[in-house]
Each structure stands twice: as structure tokens, then as C-alpha cells.
Specification:
Elements (H helix, E strand, L loop, with lengths): L1 E4 L3 E5 L5 E5 L4 E6 L27 E2 L28 E7 L3 E7 L6 H4 L9 E9 L3 E10 L5 E7 L2 E3 L6 E3 L6 E4 L4 E4 L5 E2 L4 E6 L7 E5 L2 E9 L3 E6 L1 H6 L13 E15 L4 E10 L11
Antiparallel strand pairs: 1-2, 2-3, 3-4, 5-10, 6-7, 7-8, 8-9, 9-21, 10-20, 11-20, 12-15, 12-17, 13-14, 13-16, 16-19, 17-18, 18-21, 19-20
This protein binds 6-O-phosphono-beta-D-glucopyranose.
């Protein structure tokens, strides 16, 4: 077990050989290799890791807005797409436990450029984010605590924008969203998911809303479970694959056929805002684990 800190990143190594790398920029997890040496997350080969742009891949952190706010009267309206947490340099607080191996990062207004904090309301929102990353035998848990360090209430959205590595997107199915309410961002339509398992053959961008916490999303490849995604206090889950045209338009998305090898499953609180009064705290987490059996938790008739 070890923790290495460089100027730009923190690397955790478990005694079983699994490794997680976290860039201080965005506190972005850029890699998680399990004890068998397999990379579990997708990272674009053209991802900017120098702080010039949010990282294309790994686990970018989305706060205090998801996407672009459409309501011009809302205090998050002026913020750029997905907010400012993914493009600010977080403070590394150090190791907080040895078993399981745990580290923490923090972000407060001092670490964020004034140009960005000023776009959230009138720039007066005082917050402390504590991000905890826990590396277990065959799982990775990431947890966020948002504290309103000021006196006035504020509203925010949160999302873990997790990019999973998959061998071939056309062989992949995702379980346990059947009957969930979903907003299709491409059709701008809301409906209930009817597919017994989700499959991918074109651009895909859906927000599954208010999904029971006990429902674990699984990425299954040819009958074998690759990843399990567990959510705590995160009612929503975005599922995204940009496919051919959209990835062609993203300068930092490489290789261009990389969409075949990635799938974003993004646990979040994005359908509605979390309201946090002065002095209050809110905590949420995702837990990613590998393998196991297919768990049928929905009616797939
Ligand atoms: C997803 C959204 O969460 O993030 C997509 O649902 C969006 O609509 C994608 O295209 C990537 O966003 P960005 O800002 O990293 O290019």
C-alpha cells in the first residue's frame, strides 16, 4: 500500500497491485487499474492533463451545474457547461485511512478562479467540497461532501461523470433501468425506459431519473458483468455515448473510433437542485466494482 504525491497528481497503490491515479486538476481520477492490470476507466489519448481544459475521460466532477442551465432566472445560469469543479485545481489534504486506502481533496472558493465563482449567483456562495477516494481490493468508492460554509442558502447539482472502458460498445448491455423515467437529451422527450437492458448502436444521451438507490447499474459484455455502479444519495444516472459524429466534433476525443471502447454511466443529482442552507452539509457517493453475477432488479418480462 502506498501513496505517492507529485506536483500534479496523487497515485494510490493497493497491496494487491491495483492503482488509482488522481490529477489535482479537477481532482479527476484519470486511471484505475485492478490487480489483474486491467484499466477500468476510459481516457482519451488527446485528453488535456495540463489544466488547460477539463479532462476527457476518467471521472470528472460536475458541480454546481450539470450541462447548461436553461432557466435564465436561476443563479447557475451563467456558469459554463458542467460548472467549475472539473476545471479547478483541488487541494490535496492527504491520506485519511490506511485500510481501505483513503485520501481526501478539498475545493473552496479560494481555489476557483473569481471569473468562475462570480458566475454563480453574485459570487457570494461560500462552499467547502471534500472529495474522498477509497481504493478497495476490487472496488473504487468516490464520495463528495458539499458544505455550505456561508449563511445564505444555495442550490447546486452534482454528478460523477464516470467514463468506463469497454472492449466493444456494440457487445455491451446495461441493466436495471427498465421502467425508470428518463429524459432523452437528444430527442428532448421524456418517457419510461422499456428496454429490458439498454444496448448501444447510435449516439446515446439519457438522464434516468429518481432511480431506486438499491438498483445497481451493471455493464454486461456478452453475458459477463464488467462493472457495477452503486449510488448513495444520488437519485439520477446519466448514460452517455457520443458515437461517431459527436466524438468527431470533440477536439480532445481520440482516437476517433474511441467511442467503441467507452461508456459513461454518471451517477448524479441532476434532475433537480439540492438546496443547502447556511452551515448545512450534503453527502453522496458512487461505488464502482468489477465482476460478479448479473443482478436482475427490474421486471424484464
Ligand atoms: C454528458 C451529457 O453528461 O456529458 C452530454 O449528458 C455531454 O450531453 C457530455 O455531451 C460531455 O460533456 P462535455 O462538456 O464534457 O463535452
Amino acid at each position: 500500500m502506498s501513496i505517492e504525491e507529485t506536483e500534479t497528481e496523487v497515485i494510490l497503490t493497493h497491496k494487491n497491485g491495483s492503482v488509482v491515479k488522481i490529477l489535482k486538476y479537477g481532482a479527476t481520477v484519470t486511471s484505475w487499474t485492478t490487480s489483474d492490470g486491467k484499466e477500468q476507466l476510459w481516457l482519451s489519448s488527446a485528453a488535456k492533463l495540463d489544466g488547460s481544459k477539463p479532462v476527457r475521460g476518467g471521472i470528472p466532477l460536475v458541480f454546481p451545474i450539470f450541462g447548461k442551465c436553461q432557466d435564465e432566472t436561476h443563479p447557475t445560469f451563467k456558469l459554463p457547461q458542467h460548472g467549475f469543479a472539473r476545471n479547478s485545481v483541488w487541494e490535496f489534504l492527504g491520506q485519511t485511512a490506511a485500510n481501505p486506502l483513503t485520501v481526501e481533496f478539498a475545493l473552496s472558493p479560494e481555489q476557483v478562479s473569481n471569473d468562475l465563482t462570480n458566475l454563480w449567483g453574485d459570487g457570494q456562495n461560500d462552499f467547502t467540497l471534500i472529495y474522498t477516494i477509497q481504493l478497495n481490493e476490487s472496488s473504487l468508492k468516490t464520495q463528495i461532501e458539499v458544505e455550505n460554509a456561508g449563511k445564505r442558502e444555495f442550490e447546486f447539482k452534482w454528478l460523477f461523470h464516470t467514463y468506463f472502458a469497454v472492449p466493444d460498445i456494440t457487445d455491451v448491455l446495461v441493466t436495471n433501468f427498465t421502467d425508470a423515467k428518463c429524459y432523452d437529451q437528444l430527442l428532448a422527450e421524456e418517457y419510461s425506459e422499456k428496454a429490458p437492458m439498454i444496448s448501444f448502436h447510435e449516439e446515446f444521451d439519457r438522464i434516468y431519473k429518481g432511480v431506486d438507490q438499491d438498483k445497481v447499474a451493471q455493464i454486461v459484455e456478452l453475458g459477463k458483468v464488467l462493472h457495477n455502479v452503486k449510488r448513495t444519495n444520488l437519485p439520477d444516472c446519466v448514460v452517455w455515448n457520443p458515437w461517431i459524429k459527436k466524438s468527431a466534433g470533440m477536439g480532445d476525443f481520440e482516437p476517433k473510433d474511441g467511442y467503441k471502447n467507452m461508456l459513461c454511466i454518471e451517477p448524479g443529482h441532476v434532475d433537480s437542485f439540492v438546496k443547502l442552507g447556511g452551515g448545512e452539509k450534503w453527502t453522496a457517493a458512487q461505488e464502482l466494482s468489477i465482476g460478479g453475477d448479473i443482478k436482475v432488479q427490474t421486471n424484464i418480462y
